[in-house]
Amino acid sequence: MTASNPLFFGSITAMVTPMDNHGEVDFDALEKLVEYHVAAGTHGIVSVGTTGESATLSIEENVKTILKTVEFAAGRIPVIAGAGANATSEAITMTKLLNDSGVAGCLSVVPYYNKPTQEGMYQHFKAIAECTDLPQILYNVPGRTGSDMLPETVGRLAEVKNIVAIKEATGDVSRVAKIKRLAGEEFIVLSGDDATGLESMKAGGEGVISVTNNVAAADMAKMCNLALAGKFEEAEAINQRLMALHKNLFIESNPIPVKWACYKLGLIPEPVLRLPLTTLSAGAQPKVLDALKTAGLL
After folding, report:
1. Rounded Cα gap, residues 289 and 264, in angstroms
2. Residue 136, strand partner residues
C-alpha cells in the first residue's frame, strides 16, 4: 500500500505543546521533541492540534508555535498545522497566516459547540480551502465537537481540489470503506483513534494521527510501516503491546495523561497544562505508569 500523497501517511504525531511553570510555550523543549520524532522515524507532526492545546493558545501563539516547529524540523519531517476553529472567519485567518510558512498542510476540525448542519460543515470547509493553496485535512471528532461529519459530506468536500484527507476519530472502522467509496480511493483516510488505528489501516486507511506516538514514537512508526507493507501480523504484535497506552492515555481528557507520560519519560521538563486542564490526578497516575511499563518504555 502507498499513500496517494506521500506527505500524509504512516504514524503522524498529534504532538504536545511543552510549557514552562508559568504556562508559556517552552521552545527549547519543543525543539527537543522535534528531534525525538525525527530520530524515531515519525512520518509527520501535527503542531498545535487538540493534543497541542490549540483551544487555550491565542492565534499569535498558535502561529508562532507552528512556525518554530517548521524551523526545528528543517525539512526533515513534514509539519501539519492545526488551524481549525468554530468560527469560519477565524479558521480562515489562521490558515492565511500559514500560507508560505513551510507547513505541509492544515488540519481543520469540525466546528465545535455551535453544532452546524452537514451543509454548514460543507460550506465551512469549502470556504477555508478556497482561501489557500495548502492541502487541507478534515478532522472529524464528534466526542469533542458535538457534531459528526458524515461520509456523504466528506465525499462532497473531496471534490474541492485541495481537500485531500480526513482525520477520522469516531473509532468506526467501517467508515474507511464508506469514505473511500464516496470520496475516491485517492482520498486519504487517517485514523484519529489510537485504539482502532491499525484496524483502520487494515481497512484501507493510510495511517494514524496518534497521541500514543508522543511517547512510543519508534514503535508507532514501525507498526505503521509494517501495516503499509501489508505485514499485519507483525504490526499487530506491536499494537497489542501498546494497547494499554492507546486506552489509558485517554483515562482523563487528552492531553492530560500524555503530557504526564511525556514528563515521566523525560521528554518534557514539566507536565504543565493551561487551565481549564489540570495535571493528571494521583488516582490515574498508576494506570498510565503501568501502561508505559507494559509497552516497554519504562
Report:
1. 8
2. 106, 163
The helix, strand and coil proportions of the chain, stated in percent and rounded to the nearest 5, come to 45, 15, 40
Q: Alpha-carbon dihedral of residues 267, 272, 277, 279, nearest 10 degrees?
A: 80
Task: Find all residues with CB under 8 Å of 183, minimum gap 6, and list them.
Answer: 151, 154, 155, 157, 158, 166
Q: What is the reported pTM? A: 0.96
For residues 41-57, average pLDDT: 97
**What is the crossing angle of helices 118-129 and 88-98, to 10°?**
30
Please check the confidence at residue 2 and state whether its pLDDT lies above 50: no
Give the model confidence (pLDDT) of 172-183 as tens digits: 999 999 999 999
The span from the CA of 187 to the CA of 156, in Å, is: 12
Confidence of residue 6 (pLDDT cuts 50, 70, 90): low
C-alpha closest to that of 265 among 294, 220, 218, 297: 297
CA gap 189, 171 in Å, rounded: 12
Q: Which amino acid is at 191?
A: S
What is the pairing mode between strands 44-47 and 79-82?
parallel
The CA-based angle 191-261-60, given to 5 degrees, is 70
- Which residues are marked as active site? 139, 167
Cell of 181: 467509496
In this predicted structure, the answer to whether residue 64 has a pLDDT above a threshold of 90 is yes
Task: Output b/e per residue, 28-64; b: 16+ Cβ within 10 A.
Answer: ebbbbbbebbbebbbbbbbbbbbbbbbbebeeebbbe
Q: Grid coordinates in use for 17?
A: 505543546
